[in-house]
Amino acid sequence: MKTTPSNALPTIRTNLKTSAIACAVALSGLSAPLLAQEKERGLEKIEITARKTVETLQEVPISVTSVGATKLDEIGASVITEIAQFSPNTTLQTSRGTNSTLTAFIRGVGQQDPLWGYEPGVGIYVDDVYMARPQGAVLDLLNVERIEVLRGPQGTLYGKNTIGGAIKYVTKAMSGDPTMEVRATVGSYGQRDLKVTGQLPVIEDKLYIGAGFATLNRDGFGSFLQSALPNQDTENYNKDVTAARVTVEFTPADDMFFRFNWDKTVDDSNSKGGYRLLPSLLTDAPVPDSVFDSYTSLPTENKVETEGFSLMANWDVSDQLSLKYIGSSRESYSPTNIDFDNTALDIFDVPAIYEDENTTHELQANYRSDKFSLVSGVYYYDGESCGQFEAILGVLGRAAFATPGLTREVSGCNNSESVAIYAQSSFDITDKLSMTVGARYTDEEKQATVNNGLVFDNVYPSSGWIPGYVRPDGNLVPQVLGSDSDGDGVLDAPAVESWSRFTPRLGLEYQVSSDMMLFASYSQGFKSGTFNPRATAQEKGARPEIVDSYEIGVKADWSDKLRTNITLFSLDHKDRQYISVIAGDSATDLNQVLGNVGESDAQGLEAEITYAATESLTFDFALGLINSEFSTVIEDTPAGPINIAEAFSVSNTPKRTANFAVNYLLNTSGGDVMFNANYYYRSEYSLFEQDNLLNQDGYGLLNLSAVWYSDDGNWNAGLHIKNLTDEEYLVGGYQFVTPNPDAPNDISQYTPGLGGDNTLIGYYGDPRTIHLTVGYNF
Question: pTM of this prediction?
Answer without folding.
Answer: 0.90
